[in-house]
Amino acid sequence: MVMSLALEQVTNLTYEQQELIKNMSTNLQVIADISQADVFIDCLLPGGKTAIVVAEANPNTAPSLYQESVLGQVALEEAEPGVLFCLKNGKPVIGSRGISQENIVMQQDIVPITDCDGKPIAVLIKERDISETIRNERKVKSLMETTNSQERQKLVQSLVIQEIHHRVKNNLQVISSLLRLQMRRSSSKEVREVFEDSLSRISSMALVHNYLAKDGLEEVDVKFVMGQIGTLLVSSSVIPGQNIQVFVHGESLFLPSDKATSLALVVNELIQNGIKHAFHSRESGRIEITINSRKQMVYLIVSDNGSGMTVQPNDLQSSSLGLQLVRMLVEEELDGVLSFFPSTRGTKVSIMFPIRDKVME
User: Fold this and answer.
1) Which of 41, 120, 147, 342 is 20–30 Å from 64 (CA)?
2) Rounded mean pLDDT of the chain?
3) What gap in Å lies between CA 268 and CA 198, rounded to an integer?
4) DSSP letters along 85-148, please?
């Protein structure tokens, strides 16, 4: 969400210069989403020794570096030398590294915003978390120092896997940003719901790849990811005044990325279906997810205490796209069995599927 100050109250800029900055601020959210970074516009305060944050946007595609808004905060030259340098000289400062207010390693890029005469009137600042980049640099340094060929090969493989999943995650988040842009142009409620469903599915896939990108792992703790999906869907789908909670029980279970992605999509659809239909006229509700494994089999149960399903299990082929997707993923991607147990006290969905090429206790 873009937030901005009234420029005429804090700067000495002309009307035309103020309009240039206001027009730039309308694009801040898109810039933040695509770059996965916090984005700000700073202007020089009268006196020329300090700057003030006049607009900001936090990314929807990545965690923000800031827990609270910095709109209206004043930047001193000793604290933000790059910002004041760019404002005074009109030269960009790219790739500067520092520590955020929340003690996160970040990279700051600063470019001037100029008026029609080429005079710098503000700066555009992009700040993003580079903790992962720092970790990779340390891994590369360790790789260059090690003399053990087997250890070196293992580190190379980890870095390659990590980079692949990182790029997939970034691509999915760019797609999400483009879909959000398209969604904003539509006034149709039905079209917006289709976009929101698609964004939810893409976000669930991105969570899996984000998990894998952190440490170059080849397997995903699906219990952890299902908890993240539940939190994401509740925060983005629940209407104001509703209190819906998602609980994940059972043991940690590590699955290969393809199986984990399929299972994440299944859980996404079932939680979303519960939020939309089971509790559509209720103020509160619970969705319980239980996952366990025994020998070579995984058992997953998703249940709610809502109003129950109106679609019978035999009618899934003519039901919503979401439930058809669940059946397809369970039967074709997981080689599993899907069972529905609807009642007036809620709905329970049971999924059972085998794990091959993996030793289970």
Assistant:
1) 120
2) 79
3) 11
4) HHHHH---EEEEEEE-TTS-EEEEEEEEEE-TTS-EEEEEEEEEE-HHHHHHHHHHHHHHH---
> What tokens appear for 68 in the block?
């609270």
Q: Is 186 helix (H, G, I), strand (E, B) or coil?
A: coil
Structure-block tokens of residue 190:
């039905």
Structure tokens at 314: 């035999």
State if pTM tops 0.85: no
| Residue 98 clears pLDDT 80, i.e. is over it | no
Q: Terminus-to-terminus CA distance in the chain, angstroms? A: 48
User: Domains in the chain, ordered, with CATH?
Assistant: 3-129 (3.30.450.280), 218-354 (3.30.565.10)
SS3 169: helix
| 207 CB neighbour count, 10 Å cutoff | 23
Per DSSP, the residues of 328-360 read HIIIIIS--EEEEEEETTEEEEEEEEE--S---
Better-predicted residue by pLDDT, 258 or 51: 51
Tokens at 17, concatenated: 């210069």
Q: How far apart are CA 12 and CA 334, in angstroms?
A: 63
- Here the contacts of 110-115 (C-beta below 8 Å, separation 24 or greater) are 110/82, 110/83, 110/86, 111/86, 112/86, 112/87, 113/20, 113/21, 113/24, 113/41, 114/90, 115/16, 115/17, 115/20
How far apart, in whole angstroms, are the C-alpha atoms of residue 56 and residue 43?
12
How many angstroms separate the CA atoms of 124 and 112, rounded?
A: 6
